[in-house]
Each structure stands twice: as structure tokens, then as C-alpha cells.
Design a protein that fits this description.
The complex is a heterotrimer of chains A (109), B (165) and C (641). With 165 residues, chain B is mainly alpha-helical. Chain B contains six helices and no strands. The longest helix of chain B is centred in the middle third of the chain and has 25 residues. Chain B starts with a helix and ends in a 7-residue tail after the last helix. Chain C is mainly alpha-helical and 641 residues long. The chains are: A mainly alpha (109), B mainly alpha (165), C mainly alpha (641).
Chain lengths: 109, 165, 641
């Protein structure tokens, strides 16, 4: 454990922030670029994870356990969200026979 | 130190693979690997509890759920039409702008001091559990209700309605 | 009796309300009784008022009575009250308006008997009398202005009484618009008076004005504007063309409004404001010049007219010109005396013409009349008296009033006197021409008309007789001292004009000069009468038809010197063009363009914004990302360390 802990000394917080931003951006690009609804939801999960990691990094940096507790709740929430989201997708698929996001344009004005 | 960079590189690589493959099942698998790398990151930060939870919940439950749905909808083939080039380009540009903004803030923030783990024990299961059950008891209980709600909702939504008709 | 002044205008107003509201319910006889009755009672009250004033004058008092009714506007410095002023001038006008008004109301009962709008006619006539009384009785310029505008309105209503005929309606509009042009002058003058004197009451303005210098610039402007108003109301150059067209109304209207009362409002107003005018000699010269020019122009036109009412209309314009000439040379009493006698004989002439028209089954062209004196004896005799009176042949009333004006004109400017005499000669000629063409010679009308020829009923001939007596004897009211008279009217009206008299040095003609002047005009009138007799009776000349060729001067006169055409080109067409421009360009394109354009813009914006709601979720997410980026960037840029 100590080696791990020592290993981590010296990684600037900046780099963590940058790294998580990159993952987050990749998630955003995934949402904007793909048309399959399920892939989009997975990209959303990617974004959430990036945030989780950043929160953990900040928590470790400042010694405040609140960050990690928050991550814990986010994970629980993500699980619930995925469950409901996928249920909705199944319903949509039953009605429209497609998981193409462009087919879901009943919201048009 | 170099471990961090190596694992970070792996994460980014597999994340890119996730969103750029055409086959949805491949996409799911790459995402699982990405989450694995995240688990390693948690361990590097000595957040042991979170690493385990990440492994079990995310990789074990959520991604399996995705896989189930994919199989259910029979999308293991390449059935997905891609968006037009303009849209993809605009999407990448938007993402890049986002990145730039955040990266730009780093210059302003100048938080480049190295991480010194003041209290390396906070990531341990025991200490995290103590904090969870003392300061954050109410959110903890409420999240259980949240999970219950989600479960009920999911079951109701996915129920086959042709029985009623 | 002075306390009951307020009843005098109120009674015709009540008559208007009753006849107007219940016009379909009341029988014609009752309408006639109510309409004429209220004016009769007003006349009796006016007699009482006159008696009071006369008694006051006899003992040498100023005889000015003011009766306030109520405080109308009280805003800061502006205090306007509805109050009535009775002095010798307004007392005489009261008698004219109510007296002749009553006679004409009685006449109308017979004349309009077969008209379906009988009750409406009497309602309008009563309304007119009400407004005219307000004008005459007002003790400040505002009440006078209310009456001024009101009679203009009633003139419009009555000229266009037979409204189904579009040319009559046009004539009514023309009268109203030309009156309004004058009214603008009145209004601006009122503003100036208030600015200069701080009040609009006659009793305040005139004593203050008396202290101002002769030729004061503000007074000059005020009087010029008041004169503009007078030209509109009293049909002088340049606003006179409405009066001949106003003959489209029924003949009693022409008699009452356009002979005896409304058109004399201008002269009344100037006589009332005499001190202002006396202190502006330039204006007086303009008044005299315009007066004599109008007199001559109208007389020249009347010589060739063939419609009996048009001859009388131009004659009215001409005689009004004489009245203004009188005012311009300082003969205020003379001008007002001419108002009085003109009311008598012109009212008589118009009513007589109405009688002729009625007998001729609504024929107005004199070329189809002739030899009517056998069938219409009463009408003939009374019109003869009226014609002799207007021609200025002694001893009838016209001679005395016209002569007084001409005498003052001679004192002021010999050229004016010469022109005045020329006008008088023309007057005599065309009036006798009218008489001879109508009543002498052979009958030139159709056989059906000949069968219907009959003398008018009593209701129409009684007023004729009454007015004939007044025309004959009216001259006795103001016999000049040269003829041994007592100048009764002049001394009666003295307090009204006394401030003016103080300003002007009184010049008196020797009696010999006066006899000479009188002789010239009287003999001249007689000679012209004989010339007319020669032309139209002895030689039995009948005027040419409308299409016949005429010699240059005669053509000019027949076409009314093309004044209407001139106005049409100079004023009406450019105004119509301007109005069309404003309608097409400013209103439709610009204003509507702006309004419709803003509506359309909003619509288009909405349409554009609607595209955002494409239902494309990817699109929404894209914009969410963009928004997040923008917010972050903004926060970044405004971040203070």
C-alpha cells in the first residue's frame, strides 16, 4: 500500500483534472456523434465516471471524505438511472421498432 | 508516477475505441475495459472501497444490463446508420471547445501542486463507512428509497402491456 | 325683463328638441305651431328687452346689461363664463333674428307642407335660431364662437336638407368647409386676444383696447384674422363661392340664413369689435377694398344669371360687400343700418322668389317664366316693393341705408364712392331685370306649369306683406339730418361705437354735397331701371340659352368669372393630390408597412425559432453542450482572482 501511496505523490492535481476532462469530452463527443440510443447512454456513463474520478482525486488531495461519499451516491444513482433508462428504451423499441435517435422526433414543434 | 500516466493513457485509448467502433457489442466491451482502468485509478488514490464498488456495480451490474438489452434487441449486428459528416464534425468541435474551456481554466486556477495524501486512510472501507453512517445517514437512507423507486419504475415500464388488452 | 334673457335662446332650443325627438309622432300642424310658436315667444321677449334698452337710452344711459348664467371654464388665468350681453346693438339684432325668423317659420309651414321631412326642417330651423341668438347675445368671444360654429353647422344641415341629391350635399360640404377656413382665423384671433388682454369678455377687452395706440401691430394681426373669419361667414372675396351654391337648400333657408341672419354675423362681429378695428386703419382699408371689390364682382356676375335664386344670391354677396365697405370707411351705424334694411328686403325677395318657384311647380329658370303678375298679384306687388327698395330708390329703406354708406365712402375716398355708385347702378339693373323677366311679358313656360299657376296660401303671403311694409317704411329709422331726420338709429347705437368715435375726427359733409350725392345715386338707379325696362319689356329680350355663344365680357360674367374653376385648380386638386399621396405612401406603405412589418417580423422570428424544436434529441444535446461551454467560458473570463 505504501508503495502505491508513495507512487501517487508527485502527480500534480492539474493532470488529474486534465485527464478527467479528456474522458468527459470523449463522453460528450460520443453523445453527439452516435445515433444508437444505447451507445449514447453508455457515453453518459463514461461522463459520470470521469466526474467520479475527479471527485475522488479532490477528496484525496484535501483529505475530506465527503468527496468519496458523494462518489458513492453518484454510483448508486447511476445504477438506478441506467435501469430506468434501459426500460424506457425497451418500450420505445417496442413501439417504433428502432433505436435510432432521429426516429424519436415526436418532440418536434 | 509513471503508473498513473500509463493507466491514464490506457483509459483514454479504450474510451476512444468505445465511441468509435461501429459494432455496439464491441462498444460495450471496450467500455468495460475502460471502467477497469478506472478501478485501477481508484486504487492508486487509495480509495479502496470505491474501487471495489466501481468494479462490482459498474462493471458487474450496469454493463451486464447494457449487454442484456443489446442482446434483447438483437443489435449485435451492425444495424446502425451513422450520422452525417457535418454532424460528427460539429460534435467533435463542440467537445473540443469544452475541453479547451476546462483546460483554459487550469491556467487560471494554477492548482499544480502535487497531491499529498494528507490522510491516506480515508479511502478505506472502515473509515468511509464511519463517515457514511454518521454524517451522511439521511442521504444514505434516501438513496435506498431511490433504488426502490427505480426498481419499481423499471419493472412497470418494461412490463408487457398486451396482457391488459 | 332683462332677467329673462336666458329664455330667449332657450325657447328655440326646446323647440328643436321637441320637434327633433318626436318628429315622427307629432302631426304637421302641431310641429308648425311649436316651431313657430317658440320663435314668436322669443320675439315677444326680445321686444320686451328692446323696450328696456330703449328706455335706458332715452334717459341717456349706456344701456349695457350683462346677465351671467354660469361659470364655464375656470383654469388658472382663463376664466370663461356663459353670460349674455344686451346693449343697443344686440337688442336690434335680437329683433331681427327673432322677428324675421318668426315670419320665415310661418312661411315655411306653407312652403314645406308637402315635404316628408317637415318636422326635421323645423327642428333644424329652431336649432339655427338658437345658435344665432347665442352668437348675438354672447358677452365674450367664446360664446360668440359657439354660436358662430353652430350656425355654420345648421347651414350645412339645412343646405343639404334634400340629402338624396348629391350635388346639394356637395354644396352643403362646400359651405361648411369655407366657413371652417374662416373659423380658423377667428380661433387664432381669440388666442391672440387672450394673450394680449388676458380675458375674452367684451367688457374687459374693449376698454383695455381703447387705451392702445393707433396702428398697434398686435391689434392689426387680430383684426386681420377676425376679418378673415368674417369673409368666410359673410361670403366676401375670397371665400364667397359657397353662397351661390347654397341656393340648393329650400328657399326659406336661403331667406333666413343666407340673407337675413347668418351672413350678417360677420358684420355684427366687426361692429361689436369696432374699437379694435378703428385702431387698425390698415385693416379698415383692406375691409373697404375687399368689400367694394366683392360688391362689384358679384353684381357683374348677377347681370347674366338666369336662375332666380342665383340672382338673389349674388345680390346678397354684393350687398354684403356694401356693408363691409361701410365698416371699412368707418360708417358703423350705416353698415348696421344696411344690415337691418337688407334683412327686410332680401328676406322679402327670397320669400317672394320661393312663392314664384312654388307656383311654377319648382321651376327656377327665369327664361321659362314671364307674365306672372296676373296670376300672382300679391307676390308681384311685394317683390316690386323689394326690388325698388334694394335699388336704392327713395323713399324706400334701401335708399337711406345705402346712401349713408356712400356718403361716408365719399368722405373717405372719392374712388370708393364712384365704384360704389357703379355697383348701385348694376344692382338696380339686374334686380329690375329679374323683376321684368319674371312678371312681365308673355308666359314662356310649359302648359302643365301654366295650369298649376296659383297664388300662394296665406301662410306664405302674410310674411311677404309684413316684410314689404318693413322694407317700405324701414328707412324712417335713420333719416339723415340733411333730409330733416333725427338719426334715430345712430343715436340709439351711439354707446356701442363711442370709443371708436373718439378716435376718429368726425367729418361732416355739407348738406348740399349730400343732396348731390343722393341725387346722383337715386337718379342713376332710376335710369338703370328704365334701361332694364327697355331691354326686357319693350324689346322683350329673352336671355340666351346655356349653349349659345356669348361675347367675351358676357361670357365671363355668365361663368361667374371662373372663380370656382380657379379654386378647383389652385386649391382643391393639389389638396386632393397631397391627400392621395399621404394615403398611398405615408399611410399605406409607411405606417401600415411598419405595423404589418413588425407583425410579420414576429411571425417570421417565431417560424425561425420553431425550427429549434426539431424533435431531434441530438440537436438538443448539442445545444446543451454549446450552452455549457459558453457559460463556462463566460465564468472563466469574468473570474477575478
Amino acid at each position: 500500500m505504501e508503495t502505491i501511496v508513495q507512487n501517487i505523490q508527485g502527480v500534480p492535481l492539474n493532470h488529474y483534472i486534465l485527464f478527467c476532462s479528456i474522458i468527459f469530452t470523449i463522453g460528450v463527443i460520443g453523445v453527439l456523434t452516435r445515433r444508437n440510443v444505447i451507445i449514447i447512454m453508455m457515453s453518459v456513463e463514461l461522463m459520470l465516471n470521469a466526474v467520479n474520478l475527479l471527485l475522488t482525486a479532490f477528496s484525496a488531495h484535501s483529505g475530506d471524505p465527503a468527496g468519496q461519499v458523494f462518489v458513492f451516491f453518484i454510483m448508486a444513482l447511476a445504477a438506478a438511472e441506467v435501469a430506468v433508462g434501459l426500460a424506457i428504451i425497451v418500450m420505445v423499441y417496442r413501439n417504433t421498432r428502432s433505436v435510432d435517435i432521429n426516429a424519436l422526433n415526436r418532440l418536434r414543434g | 508516477m509513471s503508473v498513473f500516466y500509463f493507466v491514464a493513457f490506457l483509459s483514454i485509448f479504450f474510451a476512444l475505441m468505445t465511441i468509435f467502433t461501429k459494432n455496439p457489442v464491441h462498444s460495450v466491451l471496450y467500455l468495460v475495459i475502460t471502467f477497469f482502468t478506472f478501478t485501477i485509478h481508484y486504487i492508486l488514490l487509495n480509495a479502496q472501497f470505491l474501487a471495489v464498488v466501481n468494479f462490482i456495480v459498474y462493471m458487474g451490474a450496469i454493463m451486464v444490463l447494457f449487454l442484456f438489452v443489446l442482446m434483447l434487441l438483437n443489435l449485435n449486428k451492425d444495424t446502425e446508420p451513422l450520422k452525417s459528416n457535418l454532424v460528427k464534425f460539429m460534435g467533435v468541435v463542440a467537445g473540443a471547445c469544452l475541453l479547451l474551456t476546462v483546460a483554459g481554466s487550469l491556467r487560471l486556477m494554477e492548482v499544480s501542486n502535487p497531491i499529498v495524501l494528507k490522510n491516506p486512510d480515508i479511502g478505506l472501507v472502515g473509515s468511509l463507512g464511519k463517515v457514511l453512517f454518521s454524517d451522511f445517514l439521511l442521504p444514505f437512507e434516501i438513496s435506498s428509497i431511490l433504488l426502490l423507486t427505480a426498481m419499481v419504475g423499471a419493472v412497470l415500464l418494461a412490463k408487457n402491456e398486451s396482457k391488459k388488452a | 325683463m332683462i332677467d329673462l334673457i336666458w329664455l330667449i335662446p332657450l325657447l328655440p332650443l326646446v323647440g328643436f328638441l321637441i320637434n327633433g325627438i318626436a318628429r315622427n309622432a307629432l302631426p304637421k300642424s302641431l310641429v308648425g305651431v311649436i316651431g313657430s310658436g317658440v320663435v314668436l315667444v322669443a320675439f315677444l321677449l326680445s321686444c320686451g328687452v328692446f323696450a328696456t334698452v330703449y328706455a335706458a337710452r332715452q334717459v341717456g344711459a349706456d344701456a349695457t346689461f350683462i346677465q351671467p348664467i354660469f361659470e364655464w371654464i375656470s383654469a388658472g388665468d382663463l376664466q370663461i363664463s356663459l353670460s349674455f350681453l344686451v346693449d343697443p346693438l344686440s337688442a336690434v339684432m335680437l329683433l331681427i333674428v327673432t322677428g324675421i325668423g318668426f315670419l320665415i317659420h310661418v312661411y315655411s309651414v306653407g312652403y314645406m307642407m308637402h315635404d316628408p321631412g317637415f318636422a326635421k326642417f323645423f327642428a333644424f330651423l329652431n336649432l339655427f335660431v338658437f345658435f344665432m341668438l347665442l352668437l348675438v347675445l354672447g358677452s365674450n368671444y367664446i360664446v360668440m364662437f359657439i354660436g358662430w360654429e353652430g350656425v355654420g353647422l345648421c347651414s350645412y344641415l339645412l343646405i343639404g336638407f334634400w340629402f338624396r341629391n348629391s350635388s346639394y350635399v356637395k354644396a352643403a360640404k362646400k359651405a361648411f368647409v369655407m366657413n371652417r377656413i374662416g373659423d380658423l382665423g377667428f380661433l387664432i384671433a381669440v388666442f391672440l386676444i387672450f394673450a394680449t388682454f388676458g380675458s375674452l369678455e367684451f367688457s374687459t377687452v374693449f376698454p383695455q383696447a381703447a387705451g392702445m395706440a393707433v396702428g398697434d401691430a398686435t391689434l392689426l394681426l387680430i383684426t386681420l384674422l377676425l376679418f378673415v373669419a368674417a369673409t368666410g361667414k359673410s361670403a366676401q372675396i375670397p371665400l364667397f363661392t359657397w353662397l351661390p351654391d347654397a341656393m340648393a337648400g329650400p328657399t326659406p333657408v336661403s331667406a333666413l340664413i343666407h340673407a337675413a341672419t347668418m351672413v350678417t354675423a360677420g358684420i355684427y362681429m366687426i361692429a361689436r369689435s369696432n374699437i379694435l378695428f378703428t385702431l387698425s386703419p390698415i385693416t379698415l382699408q383692406i375691409v373697404a377694398a375687399v368689400g367694394i371689390c366683392t360688391a362689384l364682382l358679384a353684381a357683374a356676375i348677377a347681370v347674366t344669371q338666369n336662375d332666380i335664386k342665383k340672382v338673389l344670391a349674388y345680390s346678397t354677396v354684393s350687398q354684403l360687400g356694401y356693408m363691409f365697405l361701410g365698416l371699412g370707411v368707418g360708417a358703423f351705424t350705416g353698415a348696421f343700418f344696411h344690415v337691418l334694411t337688407h334683412a327686410f328686403f332680401k328676406g322679402l325677395l327670397f320669400l317672394g322668389a320661393g312663392s314664384v318657384i312654388h307656383a311654377m311647380s319648382d321651376e327656377q329658370d327665369m327664361r321659362r317664366m314671364g307674365g306672372l303678375k296676373k296670376q300672382l298679384p300679391v307676390t308681384y306687388v311685394t317683390m316690386l316693393i323689394g326690388t325698388v327698395a334694394i335699388s336704392g330708390i327713395p323713399p324706400l329703406s334701401g335708399f337711406f341705408s345705402k346712401d349713408e354708406i356712400l356718403a361716408h365712402a365719399f368722405i373717405s375716398n372719392t374712388a370708393l364712392w364712384i365704384l360704389g355708385v357703379v355697383g348701385a347702378l348694376l344692382t338696380s339693373f339686374y334686380m329690375f331685370r329679374m323683376l321684368f323677366l319674371t312678371f312681365f311679358g308673355k308666359f314662356r313656360g310649359s302648359d302643365t306649369q301654366a295650369d298649376h299657376l296659383h297664388e300662394s296660401p296665406m301662410t306664405m303671403t302674410m310674411p311677404l306683406v309684413a316684410l314689404a311694409i318693413l322694407s317700405a317704411l324701414g328707412g324712417l329709422l335713420n333719416v339723415p339730418s340733411a333730409l330733416g331726420g333725427g338719426h334715430a338709429l345712430e343715436s340709439f347705437l351711439a354707446p356701442v361705437f363711442e370709443d371708436s368715435a373718439l378716435q376718429v375726427e368726425a367729418v361732416h359733409l355739407s348738406h348740399n354735397t349730400e343732396y348731390l350725392l343722393m341725387g346722383i345715386s337715386a337718379v342713376g338707379a332710376l335710369i338703370m331701371a328704365v334701361v332694364a325696362y327697355q331691354q326686357y319689356v319693350s324689346k322683350a329680350v329673352v336671355p340666351k340659352s346655356d349653349e349659345a355663344q356669348r361675347r367675351a365680357l358676357s361670357k365671363l360674367s355668365y361663368h361667374k368669372f371662373y372663380v370656382d374653376e380657379l379654386y378647383e385648380t389652385l386649391v382643391v386638386r393639389p389638396l386632393n393630390g397631397l391627400s392621395g399621396f399621404f394615403y398611398r405612401v405615408v399611410d399605406k406603405s409607411i405606417i401600415d408597412g411598419i405595423v404589418n412589418g413588425s407583425g410579420k417580423t414576429i411571425g417570421e422570428t417565431g417560424k425561425g425559432l420553431r425550427l429549434l424544436q426539431s424533435g431531434n434529441v441530438g440537436f438538443y444535446i448539442f445545444f446543451m453542450v454549446v450552452a455549457a461551454v459558453v457559460l463556462l467560458a463566460y465564468g472563466l473570463l469574468t473570474f477575478n482572482r
